[in-house]
Recover the amino acids of this structure.
């Protein structure tokens, strides 16, 4: 199976700007169809809008035409700021309604499970209050951090619930800031909110968790989160990680999105993907993916090379009779297991 970390690559198939896509669910559907035609994977997905919370709250943002927007200011610095911050009605406020329409249209028009990515509680808290400010506050002002995390968790829960109602099959929580915070501090202050999110998602969909960086010290936290899919960064040794992850949790990773996918040729990408898939083929819970989002400028040929390598390994296993399922059955079996 190919698990896509390609939240913006579809933009390269059109001349649209990022916000032209965000503002028009029909353009999202158009891109999803182009993705399916150009470089299909085992899942489908919209163009990712990871900063939609900050945008809806009116934060100043950088808005490049052909790349993801980013937050310029992080104004929620006190408990009073949190108390004055509004809750978001995802069916009415900002671009959330259009984003949900896109999820619904893709679900109804593309016959593949749809993956939606959303920031995690600590990552969103750091976007709201500032990375360094919030991390320092985990020591100096724990009450502020707790209140900010609670606010962030409510925002994420409301969107996650609505995304699932509109057709999301997998809801990935992206929590890159986890690997910056000491594991014991994350477990004490953040983990309860992450665990609640995963439980809520698992009720009606499949939960996934992606963490950037070296997560060797965090694998136990990730496994205990109840996420049904764990997505690992390219710096991780996948075979070593597998030893710490239960066999009933799917693991996705971990081709380098820059050195391999962006900068490589078809042949070098194919070779890297083939070697990784072949090495990991004895693990039924492994899915080939990327260490993080592939850059928007990633050549389509690189994605095709990964897909071709996956097909080659499946054929090789079939011929050697070391397989357990055909390609389609492999996909449906894992998806069925995740649903349980």
């Amino acid at each position: 199976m190919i698990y896509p970390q390609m939240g913006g690559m579809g933009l390269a198939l059109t001349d649209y700007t990022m916000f032209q896509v965000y503002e028009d669910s029909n353009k999202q559907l158009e891109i999803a169809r182009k993705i399916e035609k150009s470089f299909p994977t085992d899942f489908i997905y919209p163009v990712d809008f990871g900063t939609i919370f900050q945008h809806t709250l009116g934060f100043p943002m950088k808005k490049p035409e052909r790349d993801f927007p980013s937050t310029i200011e992080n104004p929620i610095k006190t408990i009073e700021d949190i108390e004055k911050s509004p809750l978001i009605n995802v069916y009415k406020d900002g671009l959330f309604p259009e984003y949900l329409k896109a999820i619904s249209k893709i679900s109804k028009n593309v016959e593949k499970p749809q993956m939606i990515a959303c920031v995690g509680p600590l990552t969103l808290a750091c976007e709201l209050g500032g990375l360094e400010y919030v991390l320092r506050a985990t020591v100096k002002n724990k009450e502020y951090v707790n209140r900010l995390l609670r606010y962030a968790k409510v925002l994420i829960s409301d969107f996650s619930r609505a995304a699932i109602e509109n057709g999301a099959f997998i809801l990935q929580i992206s929590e890159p800031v986890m690997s910056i915070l000491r594991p014991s501090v994350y477990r004490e202050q953040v983990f309860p909110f992450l665990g609640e999110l995963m439980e809520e998602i698992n009720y009606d969909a499949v939960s996934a968790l992606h963490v950037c960086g070296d997560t060797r010290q965090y694998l136990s936290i990730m496994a205990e989160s109840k996420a049904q899919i764990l997505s690992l960064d390219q710096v991780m040794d996948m075979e070593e990680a597998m030893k710490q992850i239960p066999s009933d949790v799917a693991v996705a990773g971990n081709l380098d999105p820059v050195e391999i996918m962006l900068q490589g040729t078809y042949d070098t990408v194919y070779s890297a993907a083939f070697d990784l898939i072949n090495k990991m083929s004895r693990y039924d819970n492994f899915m080939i993916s990327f260490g993080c989002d592939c850059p928007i400028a990633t050549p389509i040929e690189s994605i095709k090379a990964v897909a071709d390598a996956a097909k080659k390994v499946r054929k090789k296993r079939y011929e050697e009779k070391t397989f357990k399922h055909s390609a389609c059955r492999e996909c449906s079996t894992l998806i069925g297991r995740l649903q349980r």
Remarks:
- Residues 9-257+285-297 form a domain with the TIM Barrel fold (CATH 3.20.20.210).
- The CA atoms of residues 75 and 129 lie 6 Å apart.
- Confidence is low (pLDDT under 50) at residues 323-332.
